[in-house]
Amino acid sequence: MTSTSIKRRTFLKGSLASSVLGVAIGAGVLTPRMVLAAWPKSAFDAKNVNDTLNALYSTTNTSKSSDIKIKAPDIAENGAVVPITVTTGIKDVESISVLVEKNPQPLTALFTMGSNTEGFVSTRVKMGKTSKLIVNIKAGGKVHTASKEVKVTIGGCGG
Amino acid sequence: MSLSRREFLQMLAIATAGGANLGSLSIAQASNNIYNVPTFGNVSLLHYTDCHAQLKPIYFREPNINLGIGAMLGRPPHLVGNNLINHFNIAKESPLSYAFTYLDFVEAAKRYGKVGGFAHLSTLVKQLRAQRPGALLLDGGDTWQGSATSLWTNAQDMVDAQKLLGVDVMTGHWEFTFGADRVQEIIEKDFKDKIDFVAQNVVDKEWGEAIFKPYVIKEINNTPVAIVGQAFPYTPVANPKFKIPDWSFGIREEHMQEVVNKARSDGAKVVIVLSHNGMDVDIKMASRVTGIDAILGGHTHDAVPAPLEIKNKSGKTLVINSGSNGKFLSVLDLDVKNGKIRDYRFKLLPIFSDLIKPDAEMADYIEKVRAPFKEKLEAKLAITDDLLYRRGNFNGTFDQLILDAMMQVKDAEIAFSPGFRWGVSVLPGEAITFEQVMTQTAITYPTSTLNEIKGDRIKDILEDIADNLFNLDPYYQQGGDMVRVGGLQYSINPTAKMGKRITDMQLNGKALSANKKYRVAGWASVERQPEGGKPIWDVVTEYLKQHKHVKISELNVPRIKGVLRNPGFEFN
Questions:
Q1: Superfamily of domain A3-150
Q2: Which CATH architecture has domain B378-560?
Q3: Is A91 an interface residue toward B (CB < 8 Å)?
Q4: pLDDT by residue (tens digit) across B279-292?
Q5: Is-above-0.95 flag for pTM?
Q6: Which of A141, B204, B437, B488 is least surrounded by CB atoms within 10 angstroms?
Q7: Predicted ipTM?
């Protein structure tokens, strides 16, 4: 794992609301290295979705949830920076992971949530090509999941 | 043979009688004039869209291939020719058949003449407004782009024409290709206190703040009516994003719902969305967002004679698409009482230029705008032996001409030309003017290109574009037609999945090799091109001057699979 690929992906842990941490990193107050103590290397190195799930949760058993909302463009304006927002009403969220199914290393972001944190994260992901965006939420000993297709196109030729 | 005005009116009377389902005209009224649309209700909206800067009357052939796949199969707008006129009870060989279809196009064009033109549109708008006090005129966008004069005047000719026509509200798409600064300048200076530019789905990339007013509320006969704007959601994908580097678009369905709710809580009794989504996207949106009374749409250039009534959780929404190139004006009359729409009437009126007396003020204006460029515009480059047109899912004859020109002038094996839906038709025997070439090519990023591209990459490009057209989910479509291809032959199965649609790629009878590089000519790249490249219109002009006569011996349409009995497909 090189330092560049760590910077491109997100691993956030803390009792602060994750969005606050995000701002801190963006502003350079906190470098990614500072939160790397518990960087789950095997999960970020995994080459497919199942291996990632196994590394994160020791299972590939996830249950589909309608209580996870993924806000992301249907067609990305720029595959290099795709803005996404995840909101959930699920209680006692322990962590939120974001996977891009077709990326060489699917795990793109992992947010470990402090207690009483609102189920909300917002980040930007890099997508090499059209792919499913998978969000997993660990809560109450279960892994809840939802997905959304984001298209990355060559562009041109509209109307 | 061309008809006298009197004969034309008689044909219309017969045709409209045959097409009794088309609208509210009785036989007696039809014998009068199709433009005497009986008034109805108390809230009226006039809508035109995608005129593509055509100030003068033109010919425009509608498609014979406009495939609907999945849920879109056989549903308007995916009906062509006989399927369309049968569905909407339009008489064969009638003026309405000429307006709405490709059927017997050359014959019909000679009989019924040109369509559109801002001076003719202006007369009709004035007449309808006189009968409908308070009626609003809505412009769906793609107004500033599509002609030589709009390109050379940096859209000023169209901006002034819109003001003269009395446009009240507009939204946009190709407008953005003039660049963010120019768009802002026009809105702040020219449109100030005159025309509202609305779009709920364009935000600042950094902060997510709205760039334009999401909606405006206008009083029509004491009824507050909200007009919500929906700009083309994929402008930064389909057109160069460097023209609008700080703006983000998208469908933004949730925000649309919030905006509709907000407009209602601000007191709007009627909510209209002025949309540049494209019709399939509008239909999906109408089924999911509640509280919209009607979507007046454009982008996909579908001339659909009657609204679709789309059900959703709280009621129904009318979805309308008003054609393109200045051919049509929509008239939507609503009967609103106690905040509820009780009933409506709708007409998509074709603008038959021979039937309408041009408005003198607008006609003068157009002549004045054209005067400095007249000689250049009217230069005759060659004679065409065949009908030239573009619209349709695959190569039209005008595209074929552009492709042939690119392959010859750029010495390429393969040529790509974008699947734009604008561009006028030229009748056989007519001279092709520089102005007509510009209706096919006038964009702000016109550089022609020549690249070496590997076979597997060529397949990726075709697959990518095919998915923009045939994805089963309209929200993933971009509303253009398939890229036009010269030299290369292929098969396409629109019903297959992404990556599996394109097969049998061949060049001169030999299978395309995945690893071999081919010389591919193109234009309209969305990436920034080096300065000084030859614009596409120069390539086409050079070719035409050399050949003097144009004959399209072969139209390079792919073999199309999986569309047997698709009512969006007819052989020409």
A1: SoxY domain (2.60.40.2470)
A2: Alpha-Beta Complex (3.90)
A3: no
A4: 999 999 999 999 99
A5: no
A6: A141
A7: 0.85
